[in-house]
Write a structure and sequence with these properties.
The structure is a homodimer.
Chain A lengths: L2 E5 L8 H14 L4 E5 L5 H5 L12 H4 L10 E2 L5 E4 L8 H6 L7 H6 L8 E5 L6 H9 L2 E7 L2 H5 L1 H14 L5 E8 L6 H14 L12 H5 L7 H4 L4 H18 L1
Helix pairs in contact in A: 1-12
Bound molecules: adenosine-5'-triphosphate (2 copies) and magnesium ion (2 copies).
Chain lengths: ~260, ~260
Amino acid sequence: MGRTIAIANQKGGVGKTTTAVNLGASLAADGRRVLLVDIDPQGNASSGVGVPMAESPVGVYEPLVGHGTLQDVIRPTAIETLFVAPASRDLAGAALELANIEGGHTRLQGILDPVRDQYDYLVIDCPPSLDMLTVNGLTAADAVLIPVQCEYYALEGLSKLLETIEMVRDALNARLEIEGIVFTMYDPRNNLSHQVVQEVRGHFVDKVFETMIPRNIRLSEAPSFGQPCILYDMASRGSQSYIQLARELESRRAA
Amino acid sequence: MGRTIAIANQKGGVGKTTTAVNLGASLAADGRRVLLVDIDPQGNASSGVGVPMAESPVGVYEPLVGHGTLQDVIRPTAIETLFVAPASRDLAGAALELANIEGGHTRLQGILDPVRDQYDYLVIDCPPSLDMLTVNGLTAADAVLIPVQCEYYALEGLSKLLETIEMVRDALNARLEIEGIVFTMYDPRNNLSHQVVQEVRGHFVDKVFETMIPRNIRLSEAPSFGQPCILYDMASRGSQSYIQLARELESRRAA
Ligand SMILES: Nc1ncnc2c1ncn2[C@@H]1O[C@H](COP(=O)(O)OP(=O)(O)OP(=O)(O)O)[C@@H](O)[C@H]1O
Ligand SMILES: Nc1ncnc2c1ncn2[C@@H]1O[C@H](COP(=O)(O)OP(=O)(O)OP(=O)(O)O)[C@@H](O)[C@H]1O
Ligand SMILES: [Mg+2]
Ligand SMILES: [Mg+2]
């Protein structure tokens, strides 16, 4: 049964998509079968693996609202064991639609169940909000991985996110746990990065990944080629840090 | 009658709050009376001017849903002619609530109307979404200023944002115009920045501000002190670029 991990943080631009794409790709490069699920109406994770929303007449939205199955919309990527359930245009209205239908919180869980066994990991990229799409992502997941940008504003939202995770665990998904917190865009030369790391490590002790993702331009160039960074520039510090994160994630599970 | 400018872009982390706070502060430092309106449930603009959400028992949310007036919640800041209508906790549920009440799209416009005459500018910081809060921001505004981060993913969402602006103009607010596009976190040393600037300038010709906001660490350090950057470090390139942006904004209006 595949382990389902939601990548969530309502703060914008903290590296959710970059983590979903590159962690997913690194796990796949290691031989795991991975499904990337894009429930962000921006569709960045989809284009990040070369399946832009504009080229997907159907995607996650359709089965989410009852038209067909998720299996119908799953596409291959340039990495043999990495598949994607892409975002499609109509996802933009989904948060509101899901709020107004019976069982709207558990729709994603329902469409993922029939396919989970085909994968070792299912990685869900969430939008920058705590709306019904993110709630669906948390409800469908075994665990949530929280990217934290090493910036002040990124600290502010953490307690609200943890409250929401708590609420989802109590009301909708008792199995939901925190996979871990991963620091992104870490720049050892600047004081702010150190302060944020100190502060978060102090609070969350064993929940913080050892691996820190450095700020690395190759990570932000790769999406313009529709490639995960390990295909675009495997030797870059960006790629290497996500490969290391994938290894750490797997070794934590084995423990 | 104060000019109301919404700072909007559904892409996360592109510098909406940093622009709202520092453009607002620069206009105020120039002697204008400015009201910063924080309709993002994260409340970053509020804490960015030293009025953290945790310290605001009431804020924009309350008058938005009919309890009291906006005047009741407006607070002063460390800059004499800069005021803030802060975010408060309950704003997190507002997008859904507004979607389900009569005239939910125009609530913000309604609560701003009685105070507009007291200010030269009202600057609205929007959340990273195209939900009812952002729609309220666009409906209440005379113009929208669009921060564009010099990154690939930031390009992807632009056409969707322009569609939404068009829709709001047609259905809710005929006066809505585009104040302009401002490049943020521009790094002249990297190719990607140049590519994004070329691409956007090619499409939007006269709508792009000459002033470009450089990536500058002082802009991201200032919020941890609850200060706009012009108070934290007036001489920094970050502060100077926002002062220049404020000047350009005013000279465009005079033209
Ligand atoms: N470690 C990194 N080094 C350099 N650039 C990065 C890094 N991680 C992400 N980026 C870039 O920063 C921007 C924000 O990252 P990303 O889009 O992954 O964040 P997000 O949290 O998914 O954003 P949103 O909230 O809009 O969904 C992107 O342009 C991305 O390419
Ligand atoms: N020009 C800049 N140079 C360096 N850092 C910047 C710059 N502009 C913004 N930042 C930092 O980048 C992060 C994202 O900026 P900001 O929070 O203003 O974006 P936003 O669009 O308001 O995000 P959200 O989508 O979450 O509302 C913040 O930590 C901010 O301090
Ligand atoms: Mg994203
Ligand atoms: Mg913001």
